[in-house]
Design brief:
eight-stranded antiparallel sheet, five-stranded antiparallel sheet, globular, alpha+beta, disordered N terminus, single chain
């Protein structure tokens, strides 16, 4: 098992903290190219998500698109070539985005060093049947371009991005294709993947494993207690600290509900209290997997170094160290993944161009003394643009 799997999957979990709940569903993709790959950091990798679950993965070290959940094997029944064709297309996508990155570096007069070129796009189907779509490009963790599907125009973040904005705004047919993908095709794939998941996961209930760990704070004599809930499904869970049976908010802190690799979820919440009041507090949990609500008592801390709950923080820090060279990626995706918000053309929107071709460029034209190309339709790949400058 290669080392690079662990940090990238940890990154995926970090990116997904705070994602939307069951009232809406989303399908989105993230593409990353780096200028200086290293061990643990492929030059190109992609991740696809259904809601907050990683479902597909590809990187330039494996050169193979793979499912990350068992139910994605359902796609083989409808299209036996799905994974093979997807791998070929992503190989072509890598070359496109590598060229983009080289040109972007020249535009910013950056000849060397570690730089990243990212794109994230997708769609949402909300509980009231409304839909949303978004797509953005980012350079070194900062927004570069966004597409507004309502005005069919691009938003640029700085003068360097304005060059590309003028090129892309001039291509109305391409912008219309983007809009169609986000509002129609992406939603169709979203519904299809939801149907695959439903076949395997319903009816499914996994009981949360609940533990409480504690630590004495030497400097002020207070105690910190962390209640951790792990391995539960479905996602919806009610967890809180109570004092004498009543919900207690003072001194509490809640982590983000996040997915595990097996499709279950984990969550944590902490509280700081006076040791003399320890017996009044409980970690209260309600979930479909429990026959009745659970109230877990707080134990006396055994030592100042026994706070197992802080392992959560340690894991996050370790993950960030492992993927520190792509910290900008985390900033960019975290900023934009929580859902597309309609806004002005200058800084919000979504992107989606013609489907990327497996071989060769087409529809190329001279723009700003450079060649700007888009690709012909191929029914598999997400929309990616080539030679943006």
């Amino acid at each position: 098992m290669e080392l690079f799997w662990a940090p990238l999957e940890l990154l995926a979990l970090l990116l997904l903290e705070g994602c939307s709940g069951s009232s809406q569903h989303s399908l989105h993709y993230q593409y990353v190219v780096v200028s200086e790959p290293s061990e643990g950091l492929p030059q190109f990798f992609t991740m696809g998500y259904l809601d907050d679950q990683l479902i597909t993965y590809y990187d330039s070290q494996k050169n193979k698109k793979i499912p990350k959940v068992s139910w994605m094997s359902e796609v083989d029944k409808e299209d036996p070539e799905y994974w093979k064709d997807g791998s070929r297309i992503l190989e072509a996508t890598k070359r496109v985005l590598q060229e983009d990155l080289r040109k972007i570096q020249k535009r910013y007069h950056q000849d060397g060093g570690l730089h990243t070129w990212q794109t994230t796009y997708g769609c949402e189907l909300r509980g009231n049947s409304s839909i949303r779509g978004y797509s953005q490009y980012g350079y070194d963790g900062k927004t570069f371009l966004t597409f507004n599907k309502e005005t069919l125009s691009w938003g640029a973040s700085d003068p360097q991005a304005q060059i590309t904005k003028r090129n892309w705004d001039a291509n109305l047919q391409w912008s219309q294709r983007n809009k169609f993908y986000l509002e129609e095709e992406c939603i169709e794939w979203l519904k299809k993947y939801l149907s695959y998941r439903t076949k395997e996961m319903l009816p499914r209930t996994e009981t949360p494993v609940v533990t409480v760990s504690s630590k004495m704070e030497a400097k002020d004599g207070m105690e910190t207690h962390v209640c951790r809930l792990d391995g539960f499904y479905p996602r919806e869970i009610d967890a809180s600290w109570t004092r004498d049976g009543e919900v207690w908010l003072e001194g509490t802190f809640h982590g983000s509900l996040a997915p595990n690799a097996d499709g279950t979820y984990h969550y944590w919440l902490s509280i700081q209290i006076d040791p003399k009041e320890r017996g009044h507090y409980r970690c209260h949990v309600e979930h479909d997997g429990l026959q009745e609500p659970l109230d877990l008592a707080i134990n006396e801390p055994t030592s100042s170094k026994s706070n197992v709950g802080l392992i959560i923080i340690g894991c996050v820090v370790a993950a960030l160290v492992l993927v520190g060279v792509i910290a900008g990626i985390l900033v960019f995706f975290k900023k934009h993944q929580d859902g597309y918000k309609a806004a002005t053309t200058s800084d919000k929107g979504s992107n989606s161009s013609d489907w990327i071709a497996i071989s060769g460029f087409s529809q190329c034209r001279k723009m700003e003394h450079e060649t700007d190309c888009t690709f012909p339709p191929v029914i598999i790949a997400p929309p990616i643009t080539a030679h943006i400058l």
